[in-house]
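Reminder: ligand-aware prediction takes two inputs, not one.
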Amino acid sequence: MAARKPKVIITRKLPDPVETRLRELFDTELNLSDEPMSPDALLDALQRAEVLVPTITDRIDSRLLSRAGEGLKLIANFGAGVDNIDVATANARGITVTNTPGVLTEDTADMTMALILASARRVVEGAQVVQNGGFQGWSPTWMLGRRIYGKRLGIVGMGRIGQAVAKRAKAFGLQIHYHNRKPVSPRIAEELEATYWESLDQMLARMDVVSVNCPHTPATFHLLSARRLKLLQPHAILVNTARGEVIDEAGLANMLSRGEIAGAGLDVYEHEPAINPKLLKLPNVVLLPHMGSATVESRVDMGEKVIINIKTFMDGHRPPDRVIPAML
Ligand code: 8YV
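Here is what comes back for the chain with 2-keto-D-gluconic acid:
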């Protein structure tokens, strides 16, 4: 007799090969329309599923978890960040949580570099001028940006993605500085020629470019507060491909509109998909719609990780990407 297949509910449309494999392995309910689930639909899924596969667009808080069905045993998040899930409450209710780290590191680091370059060299502004028919010919003093070669990059959060950014940035001639809960190993620090700043305040005040690469946790919410943002130099550029909540977005928008820092490249926002309206009007920002991991390869690999996590869990083993609240 074939083994009983667990009920797996997927909240959003996933890449075709991932959905095909999920259907082969489990009693899978897909969301072919890709319409984000309403709170009621999400509650219904939590009550019926043994395994829920949510994404960043599903907020799984303690209120929702308190009404989850007895059968729900695993939340296999499609995404590395788990700030959409109350992991401690899930664990307290006997629900395991997994994520998909590692497979989106390189793509997110690439997008960080794209934002650094686009902000410093006015790439989007220039492209828009051409597209709008405004290119009147070359001029020695027109569309001048700032050189990144030889400048100081301060990385906030030196985990996998932070280190991948550092490797790329070093190749572009940037000097690597970083703030992290603790220094990286001497081998990595040497390889990246990276300078550790225990004090985030002191680092921010000395950088030309700052990149946010830490997860959003209670400890990093508004880590770049309005007060800290004011420490940045007027010529500084701030880039964020991590989570909007790490930066006080209103404070940043105010500083950018007053010209108190030179520019920003943002892929993520504090109240996604809403964006502070002030940011939308500014010429010195590059705004992307949370697409750091948006490659075919990343999204298929993320799906593969979700499948491995479900499979190992269902086979009675510890899933490879189990999230422990102490890690956050
Ligand atoms: C994902 C991300 O696409 O994985 C993450 O943490 O920020 C994104 O790149 C998204 O979270 C999917 O849930």
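DSSP finds 13 helices and twelve strands in the chain. The first strand starts at residue 7 and ends at 10. We will return to this case in the review session.
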